[in-house]
Structure to design on (119 residues):
């Protein structure tokens, strides 16, 4: 079992920045990949950025050049940060932390945090 707790969402003006944080606890040694997804109203959930156990990263086309994902290991927790710069109104969505655990991958999800970008 993996528990994910997100923080850092909020309201920001276009062009501004936010940093999302996701703290993972539990069976963290079984985590293969951690990622941020987002879901806007009326749209499907989509991948924003991911970081693997080895530190490799992947970004959606919309996130490239603006968002940075990073990972920190402290004691019995793993924290994944998503630094979001140059935010646009189209970035408005609920952002979810995801952990892929085990073989084959099993998904754990956080509750989500709202990001609203005003024009």
């Amino acid at each position: 079992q993996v528990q994910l707790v997100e923080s850092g969402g909020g309201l920001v003006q276009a062009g501004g920045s936010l940093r999302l944080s996701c703290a993972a606890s539990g069976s963290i040694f079984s985590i293969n990949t951690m990622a941020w997804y987002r879901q806007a109203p009326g749209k499907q959930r989509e991948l924003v950025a991911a970081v693997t156990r080895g530190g490799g990263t992947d970004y959606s086309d919309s996130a490239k050049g603006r968002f940075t994902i990073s990972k920190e290991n402290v004691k019995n927790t793993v924290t994944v940060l998503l630094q979001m710069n140059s935010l646009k109104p189209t970035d408005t969505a609920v952002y979810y932390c995801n952990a892929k655990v085990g073989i084959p991958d099993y998904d754990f999800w956080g509750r989500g945090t709202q990001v609203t970008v005003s024009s």
Notes: Residues 38 and 44 are 8 Å apart (CA to CA). The chain has no helices and eleven strands. The chain has a mean pLDDT of 95.
